[in-house]
Amino acid sequence: MPTKSTRNIALRLGAVAVGMFGFGFALVPLYDVMCKVLGISRETIVTQSQLDPDAAQADMSRTVTMQFLANKNDGMAWEFRPSQFEMDVNPGAMNNTTFYVRNPAHRAMIAQAVPSVSPPEAAPFLHKTECFCFRQQTLAGGEALDMPLQFVVDQALPKKIRTITLSYTLFDVTTMAAAPDQRVGFRN
Amino acid sequence: MGADHHGPAKGLTRWLFTTNHKDIGSMYLWFSFAMFLLGGSFALVIRSELFQPGLQLVRPEFFNQMTTMHGLVMVFGAIMPAWVGLANWMVPLMIGAPDMALPRMNNWSFWILPFAFTMLSLTFFMDGGAPNFGWTFYAPLSTTYAPPSVTYFIFAVHLMGMSSIMGSINIIATIMNMRAPGMTYMKMPMFVWTWFITAFLLIAVMPVLAGAVTMMLFDIHFGTSFFSAAGGGDPVLFQHVFWFFGHPEVYIMILPAFGVVSEVLPTFSRKPLFGYSSMVYATASIAFLSFVVWAHHMYTVGMPIAGELFFMYATMLIAVPTGVKVFNWISTMFRGSMTFETPMLFAIAFIILFTIGGLSGVMLSLAPLDFQYQDTYFVVAHFHYVLVQGALFSIYCGVYYWLPKWTGHMYDETLAKTHFWMTFIGVNTAFFPMHFVGLAGMPRRIPDYSLQFADFNMLSSIGAFITGFSQLIFVVVLLKCIKGGKSATDQVWDGAQGLEWTVPSPAPYHTFTIPPQVR
Amino acid sequence: MLRAQHRRRLMAGAISMAALVLQPALALAEQVERSDTNMRVGATDVSHQVYDLHMFSLWICVAIGVIVFGVMFYSIFAHRKSRGAVAAHFHESTKLEIAWTIVPFVILIFMAVPATKTLTDMYDTRDAALDVQITGYQWKWKYSYPKEGVEYFSSLRTPRDEIDNLAPKGENYLLDVDEPLVIPAGKKVRFLVTAADVIHSWWMPDFAVKKDGIPGFINEAWANVPEPGIYRGQCTELCGKDHGFMPIVVRVLPEGEFNTWLASRKEEAVEERALMAQNFTMDQSMERGKGVYEKVCAACHQPNGEGIPGAFPALKGSAIAMGPMEGHIDIIVNGKAGTAMAAFGAQLSEVDLAAVIVYERNAWGNNVGDMLQPIDVANFKKGK
Fold it and tell me: I need a labelling partner for C64 at 20 to 30 A (CA). Which of A101, B212, B519, C5 fits?
């Protein structure tokens, strides 16, 4: 028969195992935190009021090239493209652009645009004040739309970064959207 | 043995309900050998297809199932259970304990395994076939794009994980609580030490693997998006979670090997192990470092440069304690009085070939070089040198070393040496050319390749077949040794030290019912 | 190390000079040396750095191996019982153990310094002259030049028969594509890598570039290839069934030729876009479709859609015209083998194809009611 202290050791080790199982899941939020700490967050969302007032002062002496890419994930039938590929922006200034999207299908579909920034080090300095990626987009069959994007490049953007590429990938979430509450995610 | 000690039960129930560490150890070893042959036959299918350019024997979809199942069966079915089997047999004998601390759980942790692998093997007969996404099962190939059998794969992994965790708890509890009087931690044999550390690694990372597959299960069946960008997840997160398990897992497979070699070398050099305490500390530092290097498997996923540099430097550091071990082994041999029985041959081959794998590991740790090596046959060569010529060789080393203690007979030395040399030639013919094709640009996990790689692939395939059929020699050695042969003395090897050599050969069903006194 | 690099560059220079003198066409031939046993030196400054670092660390490893195994083999030879060796009893030496902890550490630093430098270079994607987006698909690549609005797919060209051993294998077996990625020589090109389904990895050994394409995310890499030529690589992340059959070919053109090529691709793209951009209503499609039908189809299938019994099937109430859209597009675009039904895919424009299909599905009481746009036909033709 196992002695009492053996049982103790076994229980403690079992608790460690259970704890590590939890830790596996804790890696999900930890990963996001780590990305933020390292400044490589894939995405930063702030509203205008949250912007540092200093950052909102435009720095006319410096321009940064913003590039926009539109991608569609497998099986996504929509047309999707930026209205312009490149624009020069001044850090601190508010900028607007649009992405064109059209649903060629004969039924309504729901899409989610997922942003990605390259170089990743630029992500924390790209503030989107309005973005179609904040929420799912529903288009009726044949419907087209120019989706707005409003953003500010932070003045604190490191000088060595001169080009920022903002890529959106459009995913068809028509079937997934049925139960949106079950999903984890950074978009609240 | 005294009359108050009952012997083994008769028939099938002996094996089904046994709580005896020797019975369970034997079952683990037989099981792992069966899995080794199964995984090996998958490898031969792979090598047959790759014998020549063009598709001859199998279609690409089945080829992918073969590579995936080869990896899973070898890692979780062959190498890991073999180590647990050796631990079951030897740890109580080496620390002077009558049995494992939790014998009933021991029975459980073994009997889960056949179910897990039966379930995994049955996926071959399901719609869409067996898992085909590589043993690393990266999302979304293993989630959104996986065959339906992925669910059974997930349950199988859960079962394997439970088995490993229970086995580890048992080993730790045994080592902490069941040592004979006078057997202090720093007197424990190296094999016990390495397994002690390995067991902690297992408890720390197997649950993380369970977490990873559970998240997959949720993504596949319950609409979550842990690993899918569409719902706010990230496929790269999967790789982080997987390799947080995966890198320590590599050390789980190799640390006990260090232990076996550290037992065998002193015996056949007739000289004590050089630097015992630095061996213990080196093992512990390797185990510790294994938790902070995982992303070196992911240099190409687009980490920021700060991350790449951190993981590169941390990975390079592992070379230091590993080097200490190799240097200590060679110093153990130096000025000894060596003889070269089969276990010693396997141990020496282990040192040479594992070091080659370690050195290519240093090259792989350099991130800019890894961009050229990543996912090529260079990596395949590297990890086969570490896991076949490393882990597998040391398992054979340990089995030959302790076989006379288990059966009471000496094995056929000539036949065993033939087995060694054939295997040695086979694996090097199979895996050394892979360095070349990898460097020349052949990606891994492809069923067909361009013409420039043809010669070396043919050579590799020939080596694989030599290796495969040489294992049949081992079957003969084993059966002969069980049936009969020269009787083994209690000490078996004239340089052997340690408690396991104080009990009779074959080791009786119950040993150390009265704890020995260790000075 | 430096001298070797210099010599190699001289060699490469000499080879390309010779090629230029001998025959200008050779300038595009594959002059990149490809070893069967070692890493490729490659075509870019970064790939040279990587190669040198590879050789440097390889020789360090060989040296360590020679020393360590040398001592071991000496010991195996000298300290064997059969030669009467008697075992010594030493079992530790703090000095030795400290030495062999510190020495490897120092060696590692010598390897880490150049590695850090090369890695920093590889990560410096700034000031590129051209941006190319690379998207991995199961099992092909899409290359796009976002600024010019040019994009196309690149897939394996090796014939099925060669793979199935029914025909002799060609020189670039499994390493040939229908449309290679084209980039200018001597310019810094930035690659933006992503994927549309599972993870792929874009590997061009000659540029020392390997980046994973991850669905939903974008990664960067770059190359500046001084010499025009054709460079070959493969996908290096398991991506499903045909992972081994999605090679990568990059054609590096002199700048002038590249600009001409890009301009012509851009023109094609603009024409195609104009066509695709047209969006037709049901009435428009019916009207245009009627015209097309009467001109092309009515001769056999008759203006009333009832066909000629025994010779030409009726479209009115037909299973194809009233069945799934896919099947209907298929028979119009690809025809029906062994019958009089021709393949109209190449004869009619996407606009006319779409219109006539809509007409057939909705005329003569066929009222299926669904719509088809030119873009859908174009997608169908692309095999989607």
Answer: C5
> Which CATH code of 2.30.40.10, 1.10.287.90, 3.40.50.10680, 3.40.30.10 fits the domain covering C32-123?
1.10.287.90
Class of the CATH domain delimited by C278-381: mainly alpha
Is this complex scored with an ipTM above 0.90?
A: yes
Where do the structural domains in chain C lie, given as residue ranges? 32-123, 130-276, 278-381
To the nearest whole Å, the CA of C70 is away from the closest chain A CA by 45
CATH number assigned to the domain with residue range C130-276, chosen from the 4 options 2.60.40.420, 3.90.230.10, 3.40.50.300, 3.20.20.120: 2.60.40.420
Determine which helix (DSSP H) or strand (DSSP E) holds A97, and give its type and residue range.
strand A94-102
Report residue C342: phi and psi, to 5°: -85, 165
Considering only CB atoms, which chain B residues are within 8 Å of C216? Answer: 229-230, 234-235
Task: Among C72, C123, C162, select the one facing B333 at the smallest CB separation.
Answer: C72
Question: Quick one: average pLDDT of C235-259?
Answer: 95
Determine the 3-state secondary structure of B514 from DSSP: coil
| Host domain of residue B215 | 26-501
pLDDT mean over C41-56: 94
Tell me if chain A has a CB within 8 Å of the CB of B515: no
Q: Would B291 be classed as within a structural domain?
A: yes
Task: Say if B4 falls within a structural domain.
Answer: no
pLDDT tens figures, A137-162: 888 877 888 999 988 898 888 888 89
Q: How far is B448 from chain C (nearest CA, A)?
A: 6
In a domain, B159, yes or no: yes
Q: Which residues of chain B have pLDDT under 70?
A: 1-6
- Cβ-Cβ contacts under 8 Å, C141 against chain A: none
For the domain that residue B415 is a member of, what is the CATH number? 1.20.210.10
Task: For chain C, say whether B352 makes contact (Cβ under 8 Å).
Answer: yes
Vertex B109 angle, CA B106 and B113, to 5°: 140
Q: What is the 3-state secondary structure (H, E, C) of C250-274?
A: EEEECHHHHHHHHHHHHHHHHHHHH
**What is the domain count for chain B?**
1
Nearest CA in chain C to B135: C238
Residues A123 and A42 sit within 8 Å (Cβ to Cβ): yes
